[in-house]
Amino acid sequence: MTRFFLTWGLVIAGIAFVLSIDLHHPGESLCYSQRLFGLACPACGMGRAFNALLHIHLFRAVAFNPLVLPAAFFVGSLMVATLSDFIRKTNYTQRLMRFRLSKPVAILAVLVVLAVWVRNLFIY
């Protein structure tokens, strides 16, 4: 019960934060890597990407950061799992958090994150 309210409270707080981001004014970066080292991280642009995704601007969201699609899928899956756990008294959230990738898929995921990181180094 507590996990349900904690998860949904964090999701609502995250959505409120993301919606407060101004897409047209870059402002100061929220990224600690950018602030401390002057280097973009693989997640740079993710706040603006989620904001664009919440406003149903799919192409703009992917342009800000292509990793927004798998991240949104994971967050959505987690939301559905916690809701299902709350209603049906099951443990789908536990199974989702213990999900393991096969070795080739994990290597591909690392390569994709590295490619996005290199892309972000030139954009941000």
Report on the architecture of this protein.
With 124 residues, the chain is mainly alpha-helical. The protein has one domain. The protein has 7 helices and no strands. The chain has helices spanning 2-19, 32-37, 46-54, 58-64, 68-88, 92-97, 103-123. It is globular. The termini are far apart. The mean pLDDT is 81.
Low-confidence stretches: none
Shape: globular
Please summarize the sheet with the most strands. none
The topology string of helices and strands comes to HHHHHHH
Tally of structural domains: 1
Return the structural class. Answer: mainly alpha
The beta-strand count equals: 0
Strand content: under 5%
In short:
The protein is built from 7 helices and no strands. With 124 residues, it is an all-alpha fold. The protein has one domain (2-123).
